[in-house]
Amino acid sequence: MERELERMKxxxxxxxxxxRAIYFMQEMTKQREAGxxxxxxxxxxxxxxxxxxxxxxxxxxxxxxxCMPWWYITRTxxxxxxxxxxxxxxxxxxxxxxxxxxxxxxxxxxxxxEKGDLELLPVTRTENVHEHFNxxxxxxxxxxxxMFWPFMEATANETRQMTxxxxxxxxxxxxxxxxxxxxxxxxxxxxxNIQFDGQKPTTLLDDLFLRRNKWRDYMKTARWxxxxxxxxxxxxxxxxxxxxxxxxxxxxxxxxxxxxxxxIPAGSRSGxxxxxxxxxxFVLEGHGYSILNDKxxxxxxxxxxxxxxxxxGVALQHFNADPKKPAVLAVxxxxxxxxxxxxxxxxxxxxxxxPEWTAIQSKR
Length: 364
What we know:
Elements: H1 2-34, E1 38-39, E2 46-48, E3 53-58, E4 71-76, E5 82-89, E6 93-99, E7 101-106, E8 109-114, E9 118-121, E10 127-134, E11 142-148, H2 149-154, E12 158-163, H3 204-221, E13 225-226, E14 232-236, E15 239-245, E16 257-264, E17 269-275, E18 280-285, E19 288-292, E20 295-299, E21 304-306, E22 314-320, E23 327-334, H4 337-340, E24 349-352, H5 355-362
């Protein structure tokens, strides 16, 4: 009898585990459908931290409130000579210059940037030790810092402070600072040299090692900085894009996200697309609104528009409400496409073209 009761408990526990998994997924669905879509800049306070003076749009503190969690989105505002110095184990961040001129020293490499440039901090075997400097004292310089946590988690990412920002007057907490063993000895372990000398691998395992070798060679020359003047500008079905990182680019040091800016002429509109969601927009310039699944969201400078990842996807279109000035959005989304496909689980569709594309086609 006792054995039978134990077996019944085991069966009940297994059933409860399965049910809890379904409940969890239902709760995530509710969050994506009901979570915040628009993050207004004037509702998000500036705060001073060990790293500097920042406005934090998205992070662990508010992920449960948002329609698309897991993004770190921070806007920095630096008027002092330097920010804090910290290190990221794993790496993998994008930083877009919003204003001013600055320099990042990352692993002893100088990266100079100015408004409109995109800085890429690559994934590394060890860490990215870096610090940001303002090259125009007395004038602000600011960065849009972007990280997608699922990719961070996959690389055992962790951040530790090294030196504090001049603005930080708070208490030092030793556990937040870099210990001597922050990078474990296993990071430096190397196996024997596997080379193919132009020969095709004879096993699928060796195919992976060949891909590893090619990636290491690629990273030796890959760009850590995409200057605004070098980004590719095109007018396409959806609008005028300035591409910084795209899946087809074979010279950038970070491919885990797509990044572009989207300019909408005065009084005009974007095309209309159906996408899975997961894309965020930071308003660089202008005022306007977006229609997302038939609901209107009005935005202005430095607001953030999120697109929920929902079953069936979202239909999205942007409108510039200013008849005299363009609106410009900075857009970022995870590069899922090599593993999940462009259709994802809903279909990637162009529903309507922007007026500029229609005009170009009419002249051909």
